[in-house]
């Protein structure tokens, strides 16, 4: 019996290595695809054009040089919290925040029941005194007639001298009582006027025209000209601001106050409207310094008021120098301060041209409100990026926001 040939049981080497070799090859191909996709995505994101806003550079046409910048607030020269002259309860209040009031307009009415009672009592007392005066006058007329009869009888020696003296005394007494009664009527009339004034004080009126900016009392609350020491008594009815008296108040460092003088032109920029430059001029320099802050208070008046200007708004003021001609300003331009990019000790901007941006270092001049004077690095008419400049790079493609 022949033995089996075991050599036929050998496994082909290519068949044994095939599946393992195919697995490594598939893994390598997949890795290459992932890397290629990641590289494409990176390139796509890198080359994606961000959306930016641009502004056109404008030439500085001359004008006044900026000498000094300061910050402050809009303040009214005429502002008052209207208070009652008496302590009483508020019966009616006729104003609200934002309401325009005229001089003498009724703002509120207080409880006047006590004042009316005092006025009625004073008037009754005056009338009673006046009635007494009338009675005394009638008695005086009768006494004078009696005196004349007694004097005729005395001349005829029909009555004693004592009777004549008594008749004269009666007349003189009535005259004195009439004088006293007149004074009492005058005093009673004065008390009537006081009572009437107390009644009038129950009506609170506006001393000047303006806008109500605060309603400080409500119907049913107690008001008093002085604080009662608690939270249940108000000291004011409403706060009124004369909008025609609005001006600017800034604190200027005392080291630079020599640059400021009355009548000097200034440019004001409200924090609420950073793109709006408002012309104004210095009204006065308050002649005292604040030793704590080392500043001097300066007040400036607006050349023209506007409804957008409101009390207590923050404002930045640029004090201007003498008028300069255009040749002295050659090569200088103005841009929005938002376009500046601070990079260490260097200041740069990104100039937009043909869908791409170019980084450009610039040399700064004077700040003018929300604008910056550029001495070198830009030309009139170029476009600079104002939003998103810090995320840009030189030569990057961008899209301009419409």
General description of the model:
- The protein is of the alpha+beta class and 402 residues long.
- It has four domains: 51-62 and 329-400, Beta Barrel (conserved putative lor/sdh protein from methanococcus maripaludis s2 fold); 65-76 and 243-324, Elongation Factor Tu (Ef-tu), domain 3 (Beta Barrel), CATH 2.40.30; 79-110 and 202-241, RNA polymerase II/Efflux pump adaptor protein, barrel-sandwich hybrid domain (OB fold (Dihydrolipoamide Acetyltransferase, E2P)), CATH 2.40.50; 113-200.
- The chain has three helices and 25 strands.
- It has helices spanning 13-47, 113-155, 161-200; strands spanning 51-56, 58-59, 63-76, 79-82, 88-93, 100-101, 106-110, 203-205, 210-215, 222-223, 233-234, 238-241, 246-253, 265-270, 277-290, 295-302, 314-324, 333-336, 341-343, 346-353, 356-361, 363-368, 371-376, 383-387, 399-400.
- The strands form five sheets. Strands 1, 19, 20, 21, 24 and 25 form a six-stranded mixed sheet that branches. The chain has a six-stranded antiparallel barrel with strand order 3-13-16-15-14-17. Strands 8-7-5-10-11 form a five-stranded mixed sheet, with no helix packed on it.
- A hairpin with a 6-residue loop joins strand 14 and strand 15 (277-290).
- The chain is elongated and about 165 Å long.
